[in-house]
Input
Amino acid sequence: MIDRERIVAEFCELVRISCSSKAERQVADVVKSKLTALGLEVFEDDVAGKINGNCGNVFGFIKGNPAAPVLMLSAHLDCVEPCAGIEPEIKAGVITSRGDTVLGADDKAGIVGILEALRVVRATNISHGDIQVVLTVAEETGLSGSKNMDKGLLKADFGYILDSGGSPGKIVNAAPGQNNITVIIRGKAAHAGMAPEEGVNAIVVAGKALARIKEGRIDTETTANVGLIQGGVATNIVPDYVQITCEARSRSLEKLEDQTRHMVETFEQTAAAAGARAEISVKRVYDPYVLADDTPVIAAARRAAESAGFAAALEATGGGSDANFFNRYGVPSAVLGVGMAKVHTTDEYVTVEDLEKTAKMVVAIIQTVAGMTQ
Ligand SMILES: [Zn+2]
Output
């Protein structure tokens, strides 16, 4: 059965290995040999070349009962900085780093949960369907691994991404889509002392537009943020150029478009009224997704959580993940809680208990999905 000592040892082994985004080679090679030893057919895709990294996404496949749905189990190989020389410490059942790096439970907690579950399934001859393991690279730098993946490589009917805070049993069933909005305000330069009336102040135009823009929390499923502003040269020059970078997110595509339009029009109208020009580009970073309660991916996760003895907790999130791309590629995917906490900080931690529970949850998912014969 699930072996607590083995999970902790494997977790500590993996977090110690260098795994910066786009430089996952070392950890990927270790994980690939583990997957091979567990009887999976393993290959790496060609994403390394597309994202200028040293490693592609890792795929593993193990055949099972062909009557059951094909299940995807996913996590990401990379880690945010600072992650060089991570040294895990365990005190009273809590694993932290020494404090000068992140811990890397994001997302080694997910990887270890998948590995331990596969090990248990193999050792105890638990019946299963086909399982595809997908370990992505460069998740932390704009989801580059999943974004550049050939969707034809995904074989599953649905899947789970083990990459959320919250205890095992937490199931993320909805996430926002995001637009990045880059605005350049072009005014007219002039000498600030001799001929200010000849100028059009781009900074002032930007300020007026920003004062009119709705930002922050727009509604329960929509947010917007003005994240960056740059412009101006000197106090004696009326500035003719400002660049502003904003984002809008919503779990509703319609609201995402509405908020984006509001921001774009406000910049355009304010600029035009002042005799300036707004050049705006909008880029969809990823699409939103909402998984209904009665979809197999959510139904199976709830049943698995209950059979493992955890309270199933459905939650919408405000952040994007590989699930945004997998859902777009036609593989309904939910993100699962693995207990990682204070991620992206040097105070990151995970409990030994949650590592163990994650593996238990994955075993329960494998068993539940195996029972869903089509
Ligand atoms: Zn993560």
Notes: The pocket of zinc ion is lined by residues 76, 106-107, 139, 163 (CB under 6 Å). The mean pLDDT is 97. The first strand starts at residue 41 and ends at 44. The two ends are 28 Å apart (CA to CA).
